[in-house]
Specification:
The chain has about 250 residues and is of the alpha/beta class. Helices cover about 40% and strands about 15% of the residues. The protein has a single domain, classed as Rossmann fold. It binds NADP nicotinamide-adenine-dinucleotide phosphate. NADP nicotinamide-adenine-dinucleotide phosphate binds next to α1, β2, α4, β5 and α6.
């Protein structure tokens, strides 16, 4: 088989101008922020989330196309791609922390659901993207620093997120001959609805106070998290990497 030519373009986020990016989980937090950044550099954005009201609000903010679908449902995701027409890059930020709880107390069904959402979400995105993205396309997945700094009661979700990290490298090797790249961001604590909900810190003051013990004196913004995903998407020579973006939180 003749090797595909190796696409070369600007590694800056502005190199994404004119590209179409599907964001699975684009209706809130990091995915929503990525949608706005991508729009600002001239990319066409397709936002995917399950909740229709949230989706409508996100489209109002970002513009582009919005499709309500479960990212772990391969057929539904395939339909999103068909609706989008051509797609160059996929960002998966879908996911919560379902399946959390002590190993002897957590429900096996909840843990299975976490795997279904996280691992199968990554598989579904990859299977749909692998046959549709053009050479030079990319898939960017999401992880978190608890995979390397675990806390009690998170064995189920962390096993699932850890699988996504392993999946990232394995898929990168498999898809490299097609000139597709696969990466993931391992996030620290960022100010998103997920993080606010989990922490129970409802006011800005309480959130800022909790973040003050982080090495840089605050938690990150959703824009800062999203910009790291754009870096991975834009740089044509980065693949198979899980980059930690956490303001140094995993070091202390
Ligand atoms: N924020 C942090 O500090 C932090 C830290 C470590 C890791 N992370 C990871 O980073 C990713 C983004 O987090 P975030 O803080 O931006 O979360 P968020 O604000 O809760 O946003 C998650 C988005 O994913 C969508 N979603 C969830 N499950 C989905 C599914 N099955 N199919 C389609 N869409 C789905 C949600 O919309 P619907 O519910 O309407 O579908 C929402 O748009 C997550 O994977 C999270 O675990 C975040």
């Amino acid at each position: 088989m003749t090797a595909l030519p190796i696409p070369v373009r600007s590694p800056l986020p502005t190199g994404l101008a004119g590209a179409t990016v599907v964001i699975v989980g684009g209706t809130s937090g990091i995915g929503l922020a990525a949608g706005e950044l991508l729009r600002d550099v001239g990319a066409r954005v397709v936002l995917v989330g399950r909740d229709k009201k949230r989706l409508d609000a996100a489209i109002e903010k970002v513009g582009g196309l919005g499709v309500s679908a479960d990212g772990a449902d391969e057929d539904a995701l395939a339909a999103v791609f068909d609706q989008a027409g051509s797609v160059d890059h996929v960002l998966v930020t879908a996911g919560g922390i379902g399946g959390a709880g002590p190993i002897t107390g957590v429900s096996a069904d909840d843990v299975r659901a976490a795997f279904e959402s996280r691992v199968w979400g990554a598989f579904a995105a990859a299977r749909v993207a692998a046959t549709r993205l053009p050479a030079g396309g990319s898939i960017t997945l999401s992880s978190g620093i608890y995979t390397i700094r675990p806390v009690p009661g998170m064995t189920g979700p962390l096993a699932a997120v850890g699988a996504v990290e392993t999946f990232t490298g394995a898929l990168a090797v498999e898809l490299a001959p097609r000139r597709l790249r696969v990466n993931a961001v391992r996030y620290g604590s960022f100010d998103t609805p997920l993080m606010r909900g989990l922490s129970g810190l409802t006011t800005d003051e309480a959130f800022a106070a909790a973040g003050s013990s982080a090495p840089l004196g605050r938690y990150g913004t959703a824009d800062e998290a999203a910009a790291s995903a754009l870096f991975l998407m834009a740089n044509p020579y980065v693949t198979g990497q899980v980059i930690t973006v956490d303001g140094g939180q995993s070091l202390v």
